[in-house]
Structure to design on (108 residues):
């Protein structure tokens, strides 16, 4: 928004062409200034998409988790990887990615 002393013919158009979305020339009327600011805020609010508040987003995620639990569907952290049909299941590994060793057979 431009607040300026330039009030000659063509100044408002030149200033708007430079990128100003609002224009108020001096001497400034407080009411005219407030109306211009309100207009700019309303236009900006119409252009902006509302983003969900973190509380709303967390509540939505919680609702999805509860719905999955009620349906008996395990969450991603509890699902086990199944080997495709005809292939062996993946080996169990230790924390550093090495295959776990099978314990030796019990002696009689």
């Amino acid at each position: 928004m431009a607040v300026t002393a330039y009030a000659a013919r063509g100044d408002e158009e030149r200033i708007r062409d430079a990128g100003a979305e609002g224009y108020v020339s001096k001497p400034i009327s407080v009411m005219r200034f407030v109306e211009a600011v309100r207009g700019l805020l309303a236009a900006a609010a119409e252009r902006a998409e509302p983003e969900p508040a973190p509380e709303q987003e967390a509540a939505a995620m919680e609702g999805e988790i509860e719905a999955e639990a009620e349906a008996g569907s395990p969450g991603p952290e509890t699902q086990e990887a199944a080997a495709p049909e005809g292939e062996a299941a993946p080996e169990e590994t230790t924390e550093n990615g090495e295959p776990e060793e099978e314990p030796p057979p019990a002696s009689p």
